[in-house]
């Protein structure tokens, strides 16, 4: 799982955006992208239009496709600046950025806590 664990604890290969990127049926891909825009609004408070739901190969990708929401993600940018595999490895874990994110996606904390327990 660690290969697909994002900086914040999301699992990239189960992420709807990642899955839509790999969808070969164009109608199904379009349907998934509509659902993703709705999910982003309802769960994360992000007002994305359908055109904002871009392809993504995972937020830790280097040189690959990246979801538009990941390009300016403060958690991703912080972890990349610190050259962290994910936030569980950070000496500041759990920081305010993550605390805010975990209120919207508490499973990310569970995953990162699990990683942290193996490295501490």
Shape: globular
Q: Which spans of ≥5 residues are poorly predicted at pLDDT below 50?
A: none
Helix content percent band: 40-55%
Classify the oligomer. Answer: single chain
Q: Give the SSE string.
A: HHHHHH
- Give the N-terminus to C-terminus distance in angstroms: 19 Å
Radius of gyration equals 14 Å
Residues in β-strands, percent: under 5%
Major beta sheet, specifics?
A: none
Average pLDDT confidence is 90
Question: How many β-strands, per DSSP?
Answer: 0
Number of domains in the coordinates? Answer: 1
Compute the number of helices.
6
- Secondary-structure-based class equals mainly alpha
Note the main attributes of this structure.
single chain; 120 residues; mainly alpha; 51% helix; 0% strand
What does this structure look like?
- The protein has helices at residues 16-22, 26-44, 68-71, 74-81, 96-104, 106-119.
- With 120 residues, the chain is mainly alpha-helical.
- It has one domain (2-119).
- The model has no long low-confidence stretch (mean pLDDT 90).
């Amino acid at each position: 799982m660690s290969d697909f664990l994002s900086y914040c604890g999301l699992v990239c290969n189960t992420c709807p955006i990642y899955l839509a990127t790999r969808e070969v049926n164009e109608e199904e891909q379009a349907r998934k992208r509509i659902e993703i825009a709705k999910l982003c609004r309802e769960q994360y408070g992000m007002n994305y239009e359908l055109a904002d739901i871009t392809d993504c190969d995972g937020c830790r990708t280097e040189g690959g496709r990246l979801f538009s929401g990941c390009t300016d993600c403060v958690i991703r940018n912080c972890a990349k600046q610190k050259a962290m595999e994910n936030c569980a490895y950070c000496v500041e874990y759990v920081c305010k950025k993550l605390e805010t994110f975990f209120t919207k996606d508490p499973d990310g904390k569970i995953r990162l806590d699990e990683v942290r327990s193996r490295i501490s």
